[in-house]
Amino acid sequence: MPNELFDLEGEVAVVTGGTRGIGLAIAQAFADAGAAVVPTSRSEDAVDAAVEDVRDRGADSLASPVDVADEDDITTLFDRVESELGGADIVVNNAGFNPDDALGKPEDVSADAFDSVMDVNLRGAFLCSKHAAERLHESGGSVINVASVGGMVGLPRQHPYVASKHGLVGLTRSLALDWAPTVRVNAVAPGYVSTDLTEGLEANDRLRQSIIDRTPIDRFAEPEEIAAPVLFLASDAASFVTGSCLTVDGGWTAQ
Ligand SMILES: NC(=O)c1ccc[n+]([C@@H]2O[C@H](COP(=O)([O-])OP(=O)(O)OC[C@H]3O[C@@H](n4cnc5c(N)ncnc54)[C@H](OP(=O)(O)O)[C@@H]3O)[C@@H](O)[C@H]2O)c1
Asked: Of 47, 151, 201, 252, which is least surrounded by CB within 10 A?
């Protein structure tokens, strides 16, 4: 397989939640593949550090912090990407969270906690895709949504998160239908990955071991192991792939 298929030279990619964990690994992989990359999140300092990281890899970039729960932030981000870098060709909707107040028995989770997860994990991805749409259609671009095994199967005591990730897989399929043949829209569904999001789980020996016992590959993934399949989906190597959700879960959902 020629390496040029994975070359992103000349492309401009926006990665939400691109300042640490899986998102930063995606931003770095895209930069190494030749794209200009805009890694963004809510924290100005973290955005500046991620921008410096991708620039050190030779990529063009721009610092534009965003809260994906805020539509005005999103329009500002894509306006700046348009005026300063020529517009986004690839959008990775990776920003996501699973806060403590959204964990537990469904009868104990408040409406506000439920909404806060939906606003970031699902509505944020919809709005970023929507506000990038015009340029994506002009350039024949691509959207990749970072879902979860929680978007493929149920997980106890994580109802808002699981609902948001199932919604994200549904959004992926529907956008793919509406935007074909011009814009490809796909998702990845990671299993457990060592990041800040899972730090608490990994620190708890019993929980950590129960996750490893359920994972045929027998360990947590590293963020780079999610970034590589995302790079594949963004690249010409995936030119006939749309509406798909690629599980990257060490076999978690195969059983
Ligand atoms: N780690 C796993 O095991 C795992 C498994 C399956 C799926 N995932 C999914 O993968 C994605 C990345 O997870 P991760 O483990 O890398 O998490 P992480 O280390 O906690 O990083 C999350 C990133 O999202 C940003 N973010 C959070 N809320 C945001 C908002 N409202 N607006 C903009 N940016 C926001 C964070 O930056 P700020 O806080 O500075 O905004 C950070 O850059 C998430 O969608 C997660 O659900 C993770």
From this structure: 201
- Residues 216-234: what's their mean pLDDT? 98
Q: Which pLDDT does position 2 carry in this prediction?
A: 61
**Is the peptide bond preceding residue 190 cis, with omega within 30 degrees of 0?**
no
Please, is 72 exposed, middle or buried when counting C-beta atoms within 10 Å of its C-beta (0-12, 13-18, 19+)? exposed
Residue 75, both tokens: 């329009």
In the predicted model, what is the mean pLDDT of residues 212-222? 98
Please pick, among 161, 179, 192, 220, the residue that the annotation labels catalytic. 161
Predicted confidence (pLDDT) per residue in 74-120, tens digit:
999 999 999 999 999 999 999 999 999 999 999 999 999 999 999 99
Residue nearest ligand 1's atom 32 by CA: 67
Mean pLDDT of 226-255: 98
> CB–CB of 90/30 below 8 Å?
yes
Top-tier CATH class for 3-194+222-248: alpha beta
3-state secondary structure of 241: coil
Active site residue 192: no
CA-43 nearest atom, ligand 1: 40
Reported in sequence order, the residue ranges of 118-224 that DSSP labels E, i.e. its strands, are 142-146, 184-190
Closest residue by Cα to atom 30, ligand 1, is 67
Residue ranges of the domains in the chain? 3-194+222-248
How does DSSP classify residue 182?
T
Give the alpha-carbon dihedral of 152, 156, 159, 161, to 10 degrees: -60
